[in-house]
Structures are given as structure tokens and as C-alpha cells.
UniProtKB/TrEMBL annotation:
PANTHER family: MULTIDRUG RESISTANCE PROTEIN MDTH (PTHR23517:SF2), RESISTANCE PROTEIN MDTM, PUTATIVE-RELATED-RELATED (PTHR23517). It is a multi-pass membrane protein. SUPFAM superfamilies: MFS general substrate transporter. This is Putative MFS family arabinose efflux permease. The keyword Acetylation does not apply. It is found in: Cell membrane. GO terms for cellular component: plasma membrane.
Length: 420
């Protein structure tokens, strides 16, 4: 019974990680708690409290996405050059400043400054801590500790808890004032800043003294990694349909009020199922989970399209989409994050993680625009879902080829290793 509980308990698994890795995993919980204190209510604040129109709201939300996801490549390269600790700490300070600016902002200038700061902060600390976790988890795996994919599974579970907790606290604080909510979010990052400053070891950067351009050059010469990055980009585009296509579908069937509940369903699936699934994948599939996971993502869109086409009742297509997409996410993401370290040869992990994330951001920018046009075109409601399925399906094919042909991605199912 004790072993069974350990499989399902993130706290039990965290005890197997060294202190810096535990700090990163718990930090992810705090990152998302602080961020989601504010993000779900930002557009409402802009329209209801400040009276801004949809064009300015869309611009601000777009700026936030671009300044975060689009600039990950820069944050990752800086982490390689100057080290994880200083770059992450700088990101926390910038995020705190951004939230305080949003608390004070009543006009476009401060709103733009605060929005860009909150986004750019994540572009600094996220690739830095992901690269650090990948490096330390790789070392731990080689010493017969938890695998890197399992460490990233814990990282993902912690993030999902934050996604659930943040909006709950934010909704309570919002009854007082939006400024109170943003100051509270800034306070969360002050705690994270202090914890990282005290708990993250001072270590020399892996590529100190080398020019930043050398890191990007190394990434761009890694053809296997670039192919992997292009294929992986459809994951982030698929995931972002929770924010674009899913609300449209729920509104179509008159069930818009279920959106928040479906996000909770997705988060609960990850919290309860991510670690057991990661262990199964480690033992039985290895990197073969990559093409399988992308096939599940494609299936999520195909099943939704089919259910819409046959006029399935009410929110059934939306529920099927969320459940199947989350299953694909849980299968793909931990294995893919482990694969980055393999493909990078354990070098310049910051630059590699940064480029991976920025490519996903570009895919979301372009793909969501095209999908949005399809959603607005007034054609058959199943069509956008069927068309989008082609992207993760293509990724499944590419990932299958890479797993067969790239030595760094050769499957190493853990049933060949005795960890008991």
C-alpha cells in the first residue's frame, strides 16, 4: 500500500530529488499560482474596470504572449552564458516589477510596460529553470535516481496545481480590487525570489565567456533537434485550442459556463495521472511515446470533429476533446523534455529549450490565426477541428521517423533496467 501511495503522491516523489531540483519543482507551483492569480482576470479588468475596447485588449494579450513565448530563445541563451541562478533571479525581479506596474496602471503606457515586463520575465526564468532541471535530472538518472522524464512529470504536476490554485485565490481577491490581486501575485514572486536566492547554488555558467551567438549557432546546426522542434511545435498549437477553439465550441452549444470546469478536469487528470503514466511510459514505451502521444493529440481533434458532425448532445464533443487532449499532453510532454537534453548532447540546454519554446510560440501565432479564420468563416462547425488534426498527425509521423533514425532518441524502455 505504501508503494502504491508513493506512485500517486507528488510529495512522496519529491523526497527523492536533491534540494535544488525540489526547489525548481515547487517553484513551478509558485510560478503558476502567482501568474494565474492575474491572467484569467486581466481582460475583464481592462474592459470592465478601465473601459478599454477589444482592439487594445487583444493588443495587450498579444504583447504578453510575444514578450514571453517569442523571447524564450533569448532567455535560454542568457542562462547558458551567465548561469541559471542570476538569469532566473533577474526574471523574478522583472515579474515583480511588472505586476506592480499593472497594479498602478490606469492608462495604456503603464499597461503596456507592465504587460511586456510580466511576459519577458517568464522568457528569462522559464528556460533557465527548465534547462537546470534537465541538467540535474540527467545527472541524477545516471546515478540510478528518478529519470529525467519523471522529474519533468513532477514539474508538470506542480504547475497544474498552481493553475488550479491561482484562479481560486484570484477570484477571492478580485472581490476587493484588481490591484490587490496583482500585488498578491507580486508577493508570491517575492517569496520565490528569496527561496531561489537562498537555495539555488552559486555555480559557474556552463558556457561562461563564450558569445551568445555561439549557442544559437550550435542549435541551428543540430538538424535532428530542429526537426524535432518543428514537429513538437504542433503540441503547443494543439494545447492553445483550449483557449481558442474550445470556448467557441462551448458557446455554439450554449454551454460557455462549463469552460472553467473543463479546465479543472484537465488539471485534475494531470495531478492524479501524470506520475503513474510517466512511470508506465518509462517502463514500457521510452521515446516511442512521442509518436503515440502526438497520434493521441490528433485523435482529440478527429473525435471532436466526428462528434460535432453527428450532432452529439450538448458539451459531449468539448468534454471528449479536453480529456483526449490532456491524455496526449501527459504522454508527450515529459518524454519530449527529456529528449531535448539527449538531442542537445547535454550542451547549451538553455539555448535548446529556449528555441523549442519560441518555435511553439510562432506556431501558435500563425496556426491560431488561420484556425481563427476558419472558426469565423461560418462553415461546418466540424471543419476547423478536422483540419487542425492534420498538424499533430504530421508530427506523429515525423516523431516516428526521428525515433527510428536518430540514435539520441533510440528507445530505452526501463523494463530493461532494474530499479527496484
Amino acid at each position: 500500500m505504501r508503494d502504491l501511495l508513493r506512485r500517486w503522491s507528488i510529495l512522496g516523489r519529491l523526497g527523492e530529488l536533491p534540494r535544488p531540483m525540489r526547489l525548481i519543482v515547487l517553484g513551478q507551483l509558485a510560478f503558476n499560482t502567482g501568474f494565474y492569480l492575474v491572467l484569467p482576470f486581466f481582460a475583464l479588468h481592462l474592459t470592465r474596470d478601465l473601459g478599454f475596447g477589444g482592439a487594445l485588449v487583444g493588443l495587450l494579450l498579444g504583447l504578453r504572449t510575444f514578450s514571453q513565448q517569442g523571447l524564450f530563445f533569448l532567455g535560454g541563451a542568457l542562462a547558458d552564458r551567465f548561469g541559471t541562478r542570476p538569469v532566473a533571479l533577474t526574471g523574478f525581479v522583472v515579474r515583480i516589477a511588472g505586476f506592480l506596474l499593472l497594479a498602478l496602471a490606469a492608462g495604456p503606457v503603464l499597461l503596456v510596460a507592465g504587460t511586456v515586463a510580466t511576459g519577458f520575465a517568464a522568457a528569462l526564468f522559464s528556460p533557465a529553470v527548465e534547462a537546470e532541471l534537465a541538467r540535474r535530472a540527467g545527472d541524477l538518472e545516471r546515478s540510478e535516481g528518478p529519470t529525467r522524464s519523471e522529474a519533468f512529470a513532477m514539474f508538470g504536476v506542480a504547475g497544474e496545481v498552481g493553475i488550479v490554485v491561482g484562479p481560486v485565490i484570484g477570484s477571492l481577491l478580485l472581490t476587493v480590487d484588481f490591484a490587490v490581486t496583482t500585488v498578491a501575485a507580486a508577493g508570491v514572486f517575492v517569496v520565490v525570489l528569496v527561496a531561489f536566492a537562498r537555495g539555488m547554488p552559486r555555480e559557474p555558467a556552463a558556457h561562461a565567456g563564450e558569445p551568445i551567438l555561439a549557442g544559437w549557432g550550435e542549435v541551428l546546426r543540430n538538424r535532428a533537434f530542429l526537426s524535432f522542434t518543428l514537429a513538437y511545435a504542433s503540441w503547443l498549437l494543439s494545447y492553445n485550442q483550449l483557449y481558442l477553439a474550445l470556448p467557441v465550441e462551448l458557446d455554439r452549444v450554449g454551454a460557455a459556463g462549463l469552460l472553467g470546469g473543463l479546465f479543472v478536469v484537465s488539471a485534475v487528470m494531470v495531478v492524479l495521472g501524470q506520475l503513474p503514466l510517466a512511470e508506465f511510459v518509462r517502463r514500457r514505451l521510452g521515446t516511442r511515446a512521442l509518436p503515440m502521444g502526438f497520434a493521441v493529440l490528433a485523435l482529440a481533434f478527429l473525435v471532436t470533429a466526428a462528434l460535432i458532425a453527428v450532432d452529439a448532445p450538448g458539451p459531449v464533443p468539448a468534454v471528449a476533446f479536453v480529456v483526449t487532449l490532456t491524455l496526449g499532453q501527459m504522454t508527450v510532454v515529459p518524454v519530449a523534455q527529456d529528449a531535448v537534453g539527449r538531442l542537445a548532447g547535454e550542451r547549451r540546454l538553455g539555448a535548446h529549450f529556449g528555441v523549442l519554446a519560441s518555435a511553439g510560440g510562432l506556431a501558435v501565432l500563425g496556426g491560431s490565426s488561420l484556425l481563427g479564420a476558419l472558426l469565423d468563416a461560418g462553415g461546418p462547425p466540424a471543419l476547423p477541428w478536422a483540419v487542425t488534426a492534420a498538424l499533430p498527425l504530421a508530427s506523429a509521423i515525423v516523431m516516428g521517423v526521428l525515433v527510428r533514425r536518430v540514435p539520441a532518441l533510440a528507445p530505452e524502455p526501463s523494463f530493461e533496467r532494474n530499479r527496484s
